Amino acid sequence: MGKSGSERMPCGEPYRSAVSCRVMENRRVAEGYFIMSLGLPAACDTPLPGQFVMLRAKGVQAPLLGRPLSVYAFKRGEKGATLEVLYKVAGTGTLLFSGLPDGGDVEVLGPLGGRFEISPGVKNVILVAGGVGVAPLSFLASHCRGDRADARPRITCYVGAGSADALVGLDRLEASCSDVRICTDDGSCGHHGLVTDLLEKDFNLLDSRDSVICACGPSAMLKRMAELLEKHTVACQISMEERMACGLGACLGCAVAVKAGDGGFRYRRVCKDGPIFDLRELIWER
Amino acid sequence: MRTNPVGTVTPRLGVDIGGLILKNPVMTASGTFGYGEEYAAYNDLNRLGAIIVKGLSLESRPGNPPPRIMETASGMLNAIGLENVGVRDFIREKLPFLRQFDLPVIANIFGETLDEYQKVAEILNRAKGVHALEVNISCPNVKKGGIAFGADPDMAAEVTRKVKGAVDLPVIVKLTPNVTDVAVIAESVEAAGANAVSLINTITGMSIDVERRVPHLKNVTGGLSGPAIKPIALRMVWQVARRVKVPVIGIGGIMNANDALEFLIAGARAIQIGTASFVNPRAVSDILDGLAAYLARHDISHINNLIGTLTGGEEC
Ligand SMILES: Cc1cc2nc3c(=O)[nH]c(=O)nc-3n(C[C@H](O)[C@H](O)[C@H](O)COP(=O)(O)OP(=O)(O)OC[C@H]3O[C@@H](n4cnc5c(N)ncnc54)[C@H](O)[C@@H]3O)c2cc1C
Ligand SMILES: Cc1cc2nc3c(=O)[nH]c(=O)nc-3n(C[C@H](O)[C@H](O)[C@H](O)COP(=O)(O)O)c2cc1C
Ligand code: FES
Q: Between B192 and which of A242, A279, B43, B160 could a Cys-Cys bridge form, CB atoms 3.0 to 4.6 Å apart?
């Protein structure tokens, strides 16, 4: 077997297997939102925060391609491991997932891609989640909780959703974060307005030297954050989304434009070079 | 006869593609298997018939702006825009990895002018570890108003002659299905010296987001691949195999061993697996296992005894 020493993921882990596994539970958590728990074999690899899996319902003809979903939770048990994804029904693929019965068969490829990096000196982690973007951030928060108590950063999470009934995953966030601040577009829960407005108000309290922002959400939210951050120096990592075919870096289908040294641009693969990028590296309008 | 008189690896599957001897007829289609590294964790690359790498041009190319792909009924559209590292970086950075394996490497090449095809071919001819070239003639000829080289029998022949003249490696010409009669192009490149032909490349298509009234692909149109194109690809392979003497390599929507067998029975000497690798990263290995199992089950001593054995049917 070839050792692909030159091809390593940003987090230093080699790529992983495609496995068939069982849906242990597929639970509706809000209108159009589900959490699926998958039973993985003991030999599976431990995913890191920010990584994703390509998921397919086994044996179906359509859709053809797997769908990328971030890892929401992972736990090792006696006989195997459990991986959870939190997903929103967005189209055919995710609609099919939502109808999978407990005990149904799926194919999982992963964990794939790179991770959110929280360096040891960081004292403040600020999470900014838009909608279903809470999935990878909640996993990140629970990961930080696992750090040694004296090295544990303070985690503040800003969560935005359309309305109160689209706020998902709050229970876990509240367990792992020091502070969870909520806002909704319609004011049905928490602050009335955009998550970025709420964040902007608190910005001046931030010491950029020992803080890092990690964000995931719709591109409008990320674009607004890029504007906000122009005036600040705090580091910001975001999880990007793009349509995918292979998830492995081979098809070049998931390109996003990033700044190149000479003032130009170049394309990077969300699946392999991402999905975590430095917010300031991305080019939003071209 | 189930014993193996030669004693090498799977001799009952070995095929000859215009002078290039492969241990089995299963190859990876260009652009769908990266440069091999991406899939090495899922497949023993030593087992494959050959790897065909992502299309190479003289200089690196950034490719098209996103979105580049869209799933459609039983297939997908892509407009990657031939993004690649360029032929020199391929030799420097990607080829050493592939040289570790007992695996013929076929370099897929393209250009915007005849000269570019020739230059890329010359550079690869000198590279250690390249065993054949596959010439993608689906590209627009910038000097001839952007008509694809492969859409015109004379231009297709000219590219073939240029590349053949530049190398001593076997040359496979990869045909585009976006033509009126693909067999005419196949005959033309055969006469120009092609050692084999492979088909089909993707079929041009498009898809629209009706809510926003914009195309799903930034490039508007893209190439359709996957199960949706298999019947068309199979028909074209069958037509071409009856008209040329050089080996024909079948490509298009092959998802499993059964699909691969259809192409072989229709007359393909070998096959390429494309989109299937996206759905199942082990597809190439699974298909290879399936072919071997079929031959054993039907007591076929050698795959050559299967190729082009379609019977029955009556064309009206
Ligand atoms: C790295 C990564 C991690 C992701 N994590 C999650 C997650 O944890 N939970 C979750 O609910 N969703 C996540 N997504 C988005 C999810 O992949 C898409 O919602 C899903 O692929 C849509 O498939 P579909 O067949 O249901 O929709 P389709 O019918 O294909 O499309 C419906 C809508 O979704 C959009 N869409 C399609 N594919 C993608 C995509 N790859 N990324 C973003 N939007 C897309 C389309 O533009 C369209 O508006 C993630 C995407 C990426 C790239
Ligand atoms: C994402 C993608 C990239 C491709 N890139 C190339 C390429 O660089 N050169 C080429 O000759 N064909 C390219 N192809 C065409 C494939 O090699 C193949 O001919 C086609 O996809 C049909 O086979 P399939 O249905 O098995 O995928 C590409 C196809 C896809 C889907
Ligand atoms: S999905 Fe294929 S390269 Fe990213």
A: B160
- Specify the pLDDT at position A202: 82
Minimal-distance CA residue of chain A relative to B98: A2
DSSP code per residue over B265-300? HHT-SEEEE-THHHH-TTHHHHHHHHHHHHHHHTT-
Within-domain flag for B186:
yes
Query: Residue A175: CA atoms inside 13 Å, Cβ hemisphere, count?
Result: 10
Query: What residue owns the CA closest to ligand 2's atom 21?
Result: B225
A192 and A261 within one domain: no
For residue A96, the CA-to-ligand 1 centroid distance in Å is 13
Residue A135 is part of a domain; what is its CATH number? 3.40.50.80
Q: Which two tokens stand for residue A8?
A: 């390593």
Q: B73: which DSSP letter? A: T
Total tally of structural domains belonging to chain A: 3
Cα dihedral A261→A262→A266→A270 (10° resolution): 20
* Domain match, A179 and A103 both: no
Tell me how far apart the alpha carbons of residues B109 and B57 are, in angstroms, rounded to a whole number.
Answer: 6
**Position A200 in a domain:** yes
Question: Which of A112, A136, A153 is the last residue before a domain boundary?
Answer: A112
Q: Quick one: pLDDT band at residue A263, thresholds 50, 70, 90?
A: confident
The ipTM (two decimal places) reads 0.93
Distance between CA A62 and CA B71 in Å, rounded?
A: 10
Give the model's pLDDT for residue A2: 33
What residues in B contact A65, CB-CB < 8 Å? 71, 76, 278-279
In a mutational test of the pocket of ligand 2, which residue from B172, B201, B248, B249 has the highest number of ligand atoms less than 8 Å from its CB?
A: B201
Confidence of residue A285 (pLDDT cuts 50, 70, 90): confident
Q: Is A165 helix (H, G, I), strand (E, B) or coil?
A: helix
Find the CATH number of the domain harbouring B145.
3.20.20.70
In angstroms, the CA B193 to CA B156 distance is 11
Residue B226 included in any domain: yes
- Tell if the CB–CB gap between B37 and A6 is shorter than 8 Å: yes
Per the CB < 8 A criterion, the answer to whether A197 and A183 are in contact is yes
Single out the residue in A112, A140, A158 at which a domain terminates: A112
| A61, A108: one domain | yes
* Token pair of B44 as six digits: 């023993």
- How many other CB atoms are found less than 10 A from the CB of residue B311? 5
**The whole model's pTM is what?**
0.94
DSSP string of B210-250, one letter each residue: TTTTEESSTTSEEEEESGGGHHHHHHHHHHHHHH-SS-EEE
Task: Look up the domain containing A218 and give its range.
Answer: 116-241
Which residues in chain B have their CB less than 8 angstroms from residue A242's CB?
66-67
CATH number, position A276:
2.10.240.10
In this structure, the strands spanning B132-136 and B105-109 are parallel
Within a domain: residue A2?
A: no
Q: Do A128 and A106 lie in a common domain?
A: no
Same domain, yes or no: A181 and A168: yes
With a 6 Å cutoff on the Cβ, whether A249 touches ligand 3 is: yes
Task: Give the ligand with the smallest distance to the CA of A134.
Answer: 1
Q: Decide if B151 is inside a domain.
A: yes
A260 contacts on B by Cβ (under 8 Å) = none
Domain total for chain B?
1
Report the gap between the CA of B205 and the closest CA in chain A (Å).
Answer: 16
In this prediction, residue A3 carries a pLDDT of 33
